[in-house]
Design brief:
heterodimer, A: about 100 residues, mainly alpha, 3 helices, B: about 700 residues, 2 strands, about 75% helix, about 5% strand, elongated
């Protein structure tokens, strides 16, 4: 496989994914969507890792991606459990309604 | 070093032996018991007498030598140099012998007399306190007579005044009838204050002396007495006279001595008859070189003495209290002595001082024995504890309660009679020789005083005769007198010794060349002493007058004894004049009206107006307290604290509160806005890192 696609393209898509993730976190009120957006940000970062790994021929970036995916999976497990518990007590999972920790 | 020189170095012991006695009693007396306390005190005084005898021997061997024994440095300030030195000469040794000799007898007597106080409220401390004071008195009297300067003399002078105060007020919680009262304490205070006036004169004399002579030591002062202006010496001697009138109870300061009889009888005998009150006579005799320079001062002293002698003798005629009669008699006899030393008849004065110490101590102590006998008779009747329930107010001192005591108390009667004959001046008792010497000298030097003293001698014999008839003859006028009992031996033995001395004491100075020992003896110390000649006219006149007075007293009081409740026969005879005597010329009342009440008014004015209203209410409360309150309340509290410090810290708190209220809005609970804040923060940081 040749270097048909330049590094900057990957990084552009990576930044786009990350920005979309941020936008999703900031705009959406459904925690499931927010989680998805966080996944989007993490995968944006993963894409950057992979791109650099491929470009500079260093395996460290690919190893790091595995870690990130593991952590993301664990995070989603914990997060979904929290959402279930919150729904049981509040009968609602809208993040804007969950503001009882305000000052 | 020969024996007599060694004896002379013992002289500090006359002061320190009594001090040792009092210290032993003070430290151990509480545990030793009654007998030991009395024995220790008497031994201390007795040893002081032994030392005095050794000193007398040494002076006699040294042919009347004057020795100054330096002891310690005391005051050295600029030109003033006052060491503590002991002066041993014939005059001081005579005084030491009298003080310690009579003092020891009175210590022994007091062991018996104070027995009632042993178990006072189950506390031996009171009995011990008496002997501690008594030893302290002996020590300070020794300081007085042995001092080598006017200042050392003054130390003793003040010290014996203190002891006098302490002992007059010994029974401070009651009056002479044993009732709870302040009377005894007030008598003590009166003595203190009257003496303070006299001491003020003494101090002025000392200041003048130092100003004129730059020294207070006897020899230095006397050596210069002829070199300064006579007016200065006159001032010094007259100031000293004020001191003498205070201490020796002369007109006009004598008023404290009759009240001093509130003290226990041994105290009256020792301090207020035999020793302390003669300190004034000693002072004039000691200051003979000063007085001999200024005849005007001598005249004044002699007149004060003569007038006092007659004045007090007339008061004694009208008294009923056995001790008050003797007190006025003491004032009168002190008048004799002061008149004698004032006229320059120093030996006659000192001679009378010695014999008077014997017979007046004897009279007081036997009066004490009479009082004890009366009290025992009274307790016998009351069948109760002394001072307990069932005991009516009863005056054991009042001669109107007595009568017929000759039968109950024979030994006391005989010694009392000896003292009376000595005081009345009957041949050959001691008082005859000494009084006669004064009278003979007075006729020669100062006839006016001679007549005053002769009249006084007549009254003396009369009031003593009156006392003998009233106390010892006739029938008991009170049941207590009927049950009176004789005193124990410890009381009688000192009385008998004193009676012998009062009888034979005249032998010290018989008016015959060769046997006038005291004249020779004192002649070594006092310059210009001549042997008194025996004047048969004077002796005859005074003896006749004395016998006449005794006969008159028998006619009034002895022929038909006084009945209980009866008026004094002399009152029928003299009428209002007797009332004047009885009320003591209203001198106390006059002093109260003219001086004391005015002083109290002034004190009250100062207390209520100046102190309370002006000083306290206005100055302190309004000015000082008000200013402080204004300062603290208005300026510091309101101004500085509330509007300054409080406002600053309250403002600080308010600021924090508002800032936090503003910041609190940031924490709004919307997770997404936090996420936005985090994003913004990251953008800023990264932006900073990139654009840096």
């Amino acid at each position: 496989m040749t270097n048909a696609v330049p590094l900057s393209y990957y990084l552009g898509i990576s930044g786009l994914l990350f920005a979309l993730g941020i936008l999703g976190v900031l705009i959406r009120r459904n925690p499931l969507i927010i989680f998805m957006s966080i996944e989007l940000m993490l995968n944006g970062a993963n894409l950057a890792f992979l791109a650099f790994s491929n470009a500079f021929h260093v395996l460290t970036g690919q190893i790091f991606v595995f870690f990130v995916m593991t952590v993301a999976a664990a995070e989603v497990a914990v997060g979904l459990a929290l959402i279930v518990v919150i729904f049981r007590t509040k009968h609602n999972i809208d993040v804007d309604v969950l503001n009882s920790l305000k000052g | 070093m020969n024996l007599s020189a060694m004896f002379l170095t013992l002289v500090p012991l006359v002061v320190f032996l009594p001090v040792a006695g009092l210290l032993v009693n003070l430290v151990f007396g509480g545990r030793l018991g009654e007998k030991a306390v009395g024995a220790i005190a008497s031994t201390a005084s007795g040893l002081a007498f032994v030392v005095s005898v050794l000193l007398a021997y040494a002076v006699w061997i040294g042919n009347g030598v004057t020795v100054v024994v330096p002891f310690a440095d005391w005051i050295q300030i600029g030109a003033l140099n006052v060491p503590w030195a002991f002066r041993v000469d014939t005059l001081s040794v005579t005084m030491m012998l009298v003080v310690s000799g009579v003092g020891t007898l009175i210590h022994v007597y007091a062991i018996g007399y104070m027995h009632e106080d042993v178990r006072y409220k189950n506390d031996l401390g009171r009995y011990r306190r008496f002997f501690v004071y008594l030893n302290l008195f002996i020590a300070l009297m020794m300081v007085l007579v042995s001092g080598d300067s006017y200042l050392m003399l003054f130390v003793g002078w003040e010290g014996v005044g203190l002891c006098s105060y302490l002992l007059i007020g010994f029974w401070f919680e009651k009056d002479t009838l044993g009732r709870a009262s302040l009377a005894n304490a007030q008598a003590a205070k009166k003595a203190m204050i009257a003496n303070r006036i006299g001491d003020f004169g003494f101090l002025l004399a000392s200041f003048t002396m130092f100003w004129a002579f730059k020294s207070l030591t006897f020899d230095t002062v006397f050596a210069q007495s002829a070199q300064v202006a006579p007016g200065v010496v006159l001032a010094i001697t007259l100031f000293l006279l004020i001191g003498v009138t205070g201490k020796s109870a002369q007109l006009p300061l004598y008023v404290w001595l009759p009240d001093a009889m509130a003290g226990p009888t041994p105290v009256s005998a020792l301090i207020h008859a035999a020793t302390m009150v003669t300190a004034g006579v000693y002072l004039v005799a000691r200051s003979a070189p000063l007085y001999s320079v200024v005849p005007a001062a001598q005249t004044t002293v002699a007149l004060v003495g003569g007038v006092t002698a007659l004045f007090a003798a007339t008061i004694a005629v009208g008294q009923y209290d056995i001790k008050k009669v003797l007190a006025y008699s003491t004032i009168s006899q002190l008048g004799f002595m002061v008149a004698a030393v004032g006229m320059g008849a120093y030996v006659a004065g000192m001679f009378h001082l010695v014999t008077h110490a014997f017979f007046k101590a004897l009279l007081f102590l036997s009066a004490g024995s009479v009082i004890l006998g009366m009290e025992r008779g009274h307790h016998h009747l009351a069948h109760g504890e002394p001072g307990g329930e069932g005991e009516a107010a009863f005056d054991p001192n009042d001669m109107r309660n007595m009568g017929g005591l000759r039968k109950q108390m024979p030994a006391t009667f005989w010694v009392y009679l000896a003292g009376t004959l000595a005081l009345a001046g009957i041949v050959p008792w001691a008082g005859f020789w000494s009084k006669d010497e004064i009278l003979a000298e007075a006729l020669q030097r100062f006839p006016a005083v001679f007549w005053l003293l002769t009249a006084a001698a007549f009254f003396t014999a009369f009031y003593m005769g009156r006392q003998i008839w009233m106390v010892f003859f006739g029938e008991p006028r009170h049941a207590a007198a009927g049950h009176a009992e004789e005193s124990p031996k410890v009381i009688l033995v000192p009385l008998i010794i004193l009676a012998v001395l009062a009888t034979l004491g005249g032998a010290f100075n018989l008016p015959v060349p060769g046997v006038n020992f005291l004249t020779d003896w004192l002649g070594h110390t006092i310059a210009g002493v001549e042997a008194g000649s025996f004047n048969f006219l004077v002796a005859g006149l005074s003896t006749v007058l004395a016998l006449l007075a005794i006969a008159l007293s028998w006619f009034l009081y002895g022929r038909k004894p006084l009945e209980a409740g009866e008026k004094d026969p002399l009152q029928r005879l003299l009428g209002p004049v007797f009332t004047i005597f009885e009320r003591k010329y209203w001198v106390d009342e006059a002093y109260a009206a003219v001086l004391i009440n005015r002083y109290v008014d002034l004190a009250r004015f100062l207390a209520e107006v100046i102190d309370a209203r002006f000083w306290h209410d206005w100055f302190h409360d309004t000015v000082i307290a008000g200013t402080y309150q204004w300062l603290s309340r208005t300026v510091l509290s309101q101004g500085l604290d509330v509007h300054g410090i409080d406002a600053f810290f309250n403002g600080l708190g308010e600021l924090t509160k508002r800032a936090s209220a503003g910041l609190r809005r940031v924490q709004n609970g919307f997770v997404r806005s936090y996420a936005l804040a985090v994003l913004a923060g990251i953008v800023i940081i990264i932006g900073y890192l990139i654009l840096k």
